[in-house]
User: Fold this.
Amino acid sequence: MSRLNNIFLKYKNTSAFYFVIATLVIITVIIIELYFFIPLNKNINKEQNVNEIYFAANISHAHKKIINRFNKINSGKIKVIPIDLSFKTFSTNDRKELLTRSLRSKSDRMDIMEVDVIWVKRFAKWCLPLGEYFSKTEREKFLHDAIVSCFYNDSSLVAVPYYFDIGILYYRSDLLKKFLNYKKIESKLKNSITWKEFINVSKKIKNYKNPFYIFSAEDYEGLVCSYIELVLSQNRKFFSKHNFDLTLPESEKALTTLVNFVRIEKISPPEVINFNENNGYEYFLKKDGIFFRGWPNFSKDNKNLYQDYSKTKYLLKAALPHFEGTKPAYTIGGWNLMVSKYTSKRKQVIKFLKFIISEQSQKIHYEEGGYLPALKKFYEDTLYLKKFPELNYINEIQKYGVHRPQLEDYTRISDIISYYIRKAIKGEITTKAALNEATNLIKTNRTIF
Assistant:
């Protein structure tokens, strides 16, 4: 229950609203952990010949449709049972801990799971090698930036891409039109303006009292993505060359920028320290914010989170800003699929795995859920691109995509970085002290908790 204690301690000193949310998260975690770790009577299912497959993921409407199609086709033989680890309830870090506990317990209550691309190397020891099930031709159908995250030790295929993601900037077009020469600023935004220009825009509308820029500064992976984008825009080889020496100038500039957004320039409200992507997105819309750092699927995946379509219809996507004199950098994300090596239904799980990454399933996932396809075909089909021009834009910004360090130990390092970045943004520690302490913990192989 250590994870539950951490959640409680993390939220107990925040406002009543966040305490209530944290309490609900704790209750949900308990229920799901009981599901994973307490053996159930396998004979409950009256369909004696049906092989049940347990699939842990953020179960959206699109997921449900794909699962229902598979279950209908395989009726009486295979039944996929979803385990909903909703983004609305669980942060990325919470999901990581739940999956880790299940895999460590060698539980067969989970056969296949959706994992952040950065977890693959950590989870590889608990998951099934997939090389024999996917030929070279099948692998080459995926985007390079998607399939590259699916290997362990650069050769063993242990995951397959489910959907692609990349950091992006949302803005409210209706609000920008009220204050600025919209056509001029729109063109600049699409091509990535500098952070200096971005801050100058905030000064031009200084009489606007609502939030200018919302980013996620809770202690979790989303904050690390923002930091890494700022570091790698200055030096693409920073982490491979300097081995997580965060005291160097590029790192200091990145963290200083995030701190200044809140404490000096005040283009971001102090509340961002409590935000993951989902509650940040909700706050952004409720408070009529102008800009928001997110992921391309937000406008569709979160449509049930915030119901005021009079606002969401004005949400448009643009490229994240960059430092003057540097190239833009957008974190490549996405979610892969991995199969537990403790599954007793390998044949049936592989059948479902191939079904869920098929062209038809990817089409449903994108068109109904907003999740970017991981297959190249969608970005090369001129008729499809004409129907969904957003994918043309994703093609363009993908040229500036950057990967987080692909390390088995990455999640430990990420937890340290997010903890100290947040402390600096809160003003509890200086930028230099935060980076010194984070570097020391990373180099000495220690953890935060």
